[in-house]
């Protein structure tokens, strides 16, 4: 496993532990009348979604060339490269990355989506630890759905079973889930900003 992949899985493991800790805390806190209010639980999961989104965007990718002053590119840097260096809506600008111990040239848009997908699934859809419904949505200001990152969605909704039932966008409320949100953040990319939001679904 390459250095960058090791860092990714290390971050994933850290946040799985944080997620489990928050869930266990919430279950015990429910015994207290004061903390039984659903608003408190929603705030906790909103914070979880916000911190997870920001940590993923700031994680090192093992790539270089996306930062003006050099250094390892973050996942947010990969998104900027993808957007700012695209000559057409379907471009996939190349960037140098260390993958499995060797330097490789990869498409920045494709690599961004692959890392985002694998990291989120390792965090929230890991049967060895915990499984939590999630959805990440990203969109660009100007492209109108044609760019590789516009209307980006990564989610385990429709795949994940909780209590023998598949959780999806249409039935999560009926199954007793509520939806928390990180809120949108804008990753600056010149005249075109990439907006990204993470939703985490939970049972109060």
Describe the structure.
The chain has helices at about 5-30, 40-60, 75-85, 110-125; strands at about 65, 95-100, 100-105, 125, 130, 135-140, 150-155, 160, 165, 180, 185, 195-200. Helix content is about 35%, strand content about 25%. It has one domain. It starts with a helix and ends with a strand. Strand 8 (about 160) and strand 9 (about 165) form a beta hairpin. The protein has about 200 residues and is an alpha+beta fold. Residues about 30-35 have low confidence and may be disordered. Strands 6, 7, 10, 11 and 12 form a five-stranded antiparallel beta sheet that branches. About 30% of the residues are buried. It is built from four helices and twelve strands.
Which SSEs are present, and which pair or pack?
Blueprint: H1 3-29, H2 38-58, E1 63-64, H3 75-84, E2 94-99, E3 102-107, H4 108-124, E4 125-126, E5 130-131, E6 134-140, E7 152-155, E8 161-162, E9 165-166, E10 178-181, E11 185-187, E12 194-202
Antiparallel strand pairs: 1-2, 2-3, 4-5, 6-7, 6-12, 8-9, 10-12, 11-12
Helix pairs in contact: 1-2, 1-4, 3-4
Distance between the termini: 38 Å
Whole-number average pLDDT?
79
Number of beta strands: 12
In percent, how helical is the residue content?
A: 25-40%
Largest sheet: 5 strands, antiparallel
* Derived structural class: alpha+beta
Give start-end ranges of low-pLDDT stretches: 30-35
Q: Could you spell the SSE succession in H and E letters?
A: HHEHEEHEEEEEEEEE
Tell me the Rg in angstroms. Answer: 18 Å
Count helical runs: 4
Beta fraction of the residues? Answer: 15-25%
Shape: globular
Task: Tell me the number of structural domains.
Answer: 1
